[in-house]
Give the backbone structure.
Amino acid sequence: MTCKQAKLANIIVALLFAAAMLLTAYLVADKDMSKHLSFSLIMLWLVPFLYFSKKSQPYQR
């Protein structure tokens, strides 16, 4: 995976998780459940974010 592809993948994943967060906030009536789901999505988003952030840095010797 090239640096440019990793950056693009990171942006796409972030937009998908943002859409999922908005969707859960809209569909779930219970505020506490909506908050817990949002925090869970943020924790899940950190995994690909950190992976693609590592891949997006140019290779250094």
Observations:
- The chain has a mean pLDDT of 86.
- The radius of gyration is 15 Å.
- Residues 10 and 50 are 9 Å apart (CA to CA).
- The chain has two helices and no strands.
